[in-house]
Amino acid sequence: MSIQIKQISKQFGDFQALKPLNLTINEGELVGLLGPSGSGKTTLLRIIAGLETADQGQILFSGKDVTQLHVRDRKVGFVFQHYALFRHMTVAENVAFGLDVLPKQQRPSKASIKQQVAELLDKVQLSHLASRYPAQLSGGQKQRIALARALAMQPRMLLLDEPFGALDAKVRKELRRWLRNLHDELGFTSVFVTHDQEEALEVSDRVVVMSQGQIEQEATPQDLYQQPASRFVYDFLGGVNVFEGEVCSTAGHSNNRLQQGKAWVAFPDGHKPQAGQLYLRSHELSLSNQPSATAHLPLTIKAVSLIGAEVRVELEPLDWQSPDLWEVVISHSHYNNWQPQRGDTCFAQPQAGQLFTKNKENQPLALNWTKEHLLIKTA
Ligand SMILES: Nc1ncnc2c1ncn2[C@@H]1O[C@H](COP(=O)(O)OP(=O)(O)OP(=O)(O)O)[C@@H](O)[C@H]1O
């Protein structure tokens, strides 16, 4: 089932929670609504579900206008952050609940409900817990039961609002992989809300980034990461270091540099020098003991953390300014050879980045120094 959102807007009192927006979600797609708190994700999800009414606009399910259709007739399954299982019912009774309370004409027979519940518990891999009560389950198990309960109603689509928000990082990670597999197996359309960039990028076919009631960008995780459409998206995806500078006009210096005090980065060949903020991702930089021919960015090491497959180095600009500390990710082998210590000075060398100039806030200039490095190395 596809979902088409046409010019939907919503106001709460004086506050415009959603500005008129359009979005199409294709049949079978898993779409992540990503954005900071208050950006309107839940409001949009609730409008799709029929739990909230829009002030204007239309919602179509597979081309059929459902804008005025009551929530119970939309055949939508929900899972919320807080499990909302009935405490006094066993796991099996919780999953069966929606079927048990159907009007008599629509209600399956007792034997059929029992079989459906068994199949659903099998699907969420919790058959062995059928007779337990919610209080005897972990958070992750409760969420899987909540999902089984939503699936029992044979929804045409699944809407999930921060389904793993209350769980710890490891369980979250396991459950999002599990959700992705389940979605692929069942093949229906799913929309989930999250404010966790990693979660959205890992699970979704397509990510819709929201800010202040508007869609900032919709793209595949890969495109979103590689081509953020605006400074907001870049910032929100996180892990960026910022170098703000002017085009150098000091006598005796090349005017091909973005400069701040004594720190500078040369523009790669073929690029017109422009003042602005250079955004550099933590893995698109290297560190060494010496400045290079294309960059002079001195930094003091503040902390080194060995986390999993990578080493994160936290750095403070030395005699220049940045809004936040810098973070550069290096490999364990680089770390072992180099052995950086707190308080050491080192130099950052950008490989690729985006320059946001003042007059083109939302169209960054992509810069790449990799060719320059090759030239220097072979020269
Ligand atoms: N029923 C309501 N009455 C008044 N204001 C509301 C209501 N529901 C939501 N809002 C406001 O609308 C804005 C968008 O809320 P919404 O819950 O959609 O954001 P969100 O992106 O899902 O945020 P979060 O990640 O914190 O859940 C918020 O500023 C919120 O305070």
Automatic annotation (TrEMBL):
The gene is cysA1. The lineage of its organism: Bacteria, Pseudomonadati, Pseudomonadota, Gammaproteobacteria, Oceanospirillales. It comes from the Bacteria. PANTHER family: SPERMIDINE/PUTRESCINE IMPORT ATP-BINDING PROTEIN POTA, SPERMIDINE_PUTRESCINE IMPORT ATP-BINDING PROTEIN POTA. GO terms for molecular function: ATP binding. Residues 3-237 form the ABC transporter domain. Keywords: ATP-binding, Cell membrane, Membrane, Nucleotide-binding, Sulfate transport, Translocase, Transport. Transmembrane segments: none annotated. Pfam families: ABC_tran (PF00005), TOBE_3 (PF12857). This is Sulfate/thiosulfate import ATP-binding protein CysA 1. InterPro entries: AAA+_ATPase, ABC_SmlMolc_Importer, ABC_transporter-like_ATP-bd, ABC_transporter-like_CS, Mo/tungstate-bd_C_term_dom, P-loop_NTPase, Sulph_transpt1, TOBE-like.
